[in-house]
Amino acid sequence: MHSRVRAGVLGAGGLAGLAAVLLLSSAASPARGQPPGAPWHAGDPGTSPITVSAQVASALDARAADLFGRLDIHVATLQSVREHDNFRQLVQDRTVGLDGDGKPVAEVAFDETGALRNLVNYRRPVASSNVSQAAAPQAAARVLATVGLHASGQPIVSWDSGMEAWSIQWPRRVAGYPVPTDALVIWILSDGGVRAISAIETPLQTVPAMIVPADQVVASVDHLLTARIGSPHVLGAPSLEWRQANNFADPSLPDAPSPVAQLVWSVPFTVTLSPDEQLEGAFWVDAGSGDLVGGTTVS
Fold first, then answer.
1. What is the DSSP annotation of 128-167?
2. Three-state secondary-structure class, residue 115
3. Would you say residue 32 has pLDDT above 50?
4. What angle do CA 204, 289, 182 make, to 5 degrees?
């Protein structure tokens, strides 16, 4: 029986070594998409504070207080900061609501345009359950109206045991193609209150004027694997999707992915490392240029 191998299990001699022999040299077909600005590497601070005036800080508190009030989340005091997210290369305003003992009750984050991006309500759900799976989308719709977010289409509803709440999710698609990392998700507690909100919208490049044919991409990836390793491999059907270029294809790039996603052909692969070990993942090939820009492994 074959086992799937995760990236973290392979270590320096595993995935890193495999990637080194799988990937094209910079002279042949360089991986592109390094984030602009200061590159983030593992060990760097995740965020950097941005100094604001007392007037701005008061406005941040007021905005969060208004949102908490509309969601019936009661807090005693507020602590707001403006910070640069060094990993995602963006600015956000983050506010923590505290109870009378100084313990966190809830936390909310807005992007630099003022749009709500994340909210977490730390309170425990009530013991009795009165919101069914069928009723969860209606409860989520009320939250959407309350916080000014918009969703369309049929959501995916499931119970999230880790959050102790119903997960109501609207996956994101742009120009007809999925954005696998993005979605509008609302978690509804058993009493109808909100546990959390996540509204992730990664900035996107434009759709290429011409898209490289799928069979050409598959042939290139197959040639790459055949030329670089002796291990047997199998390629799956490619699909077009929005992905953020990363250092899977070039370990010299920053550890953080590009802050802007591009349209890629995602080509699934399975490489047999030994009689009882397989590595599964996908290569991401720029849909316009045909350049290898990243990839991922399957846990």
1. S----TTTHHHHHHHHHHHHT----SPPEEEEETTTTEEE
2. coil
3. no
4. 25
Q: Find out whether 139 and 192 touch, Cβ atoms under 8 Å.
A: yes
Least confident of 106-110, 179-183, 248-252: 248-252
Phi, psi of 205, deg, nearest 5: -75, 175
Measured CA to CA in angstroms, residue 43 lies from 33, 40, 256, 266 at distances of: 21, 9, 11, 29
271 within 8 A of 231, measured Cβ to Cβ: yes
> Residue 245: exposed, middle, or buried by beta-carbon count in 10 A (0-12, 13-18, 19+)?
buried
How many other CB atoms are there within 10 angstroms of residue 59's CB atom? 14
Q: Give CA–CA dist 242/240, Å, rounded.
A: 7
Torsion angle of the four alpha carbons 19, 255, 35, 296, in this order, in degrees rounded to the nearest 10: 50
Q: Are strands 90-98 and 165-174 parallel, antiparallel or unpaired?
A: unpaired
Q: Does pTM top 0.90 for this prediction?
A: no
Distance, in Å, from the CA atom of 109 to the CA atom of 93, rounded to the nearest integer, reads: 5
Calpha distance 110→123 (Å, rounded): 21
Rounded Cα distance between 277 and 5, Å, is: 7
DSSP letter assigned to residue 214: H
Is the per-residue pLDDT at 49 higher than 70?
yes
Instruction: Please name the residues in contact with 71: beta carbons below 8 A apart, sequence gap of 6 or more.
Output: 119, 121, 143, 146, 147, 193, 194
- pLDDT at residue number 299: 52
User: How many CB atoms within 10 Å of residue 172?
Assistant: 19
Longest dimension (CA), the chain: 65
pLDDT (tens digit, 9 = 90+) per residue, 139-155?
A: 999 999 999 999 989 99
**DSSP secondary structure, 17-80, as one string:** HHHHHHSPPTTTS----PPSSSPP-TTS-SEEEE---HHHHHHHHHHHHHHHHHTT---SEEEE
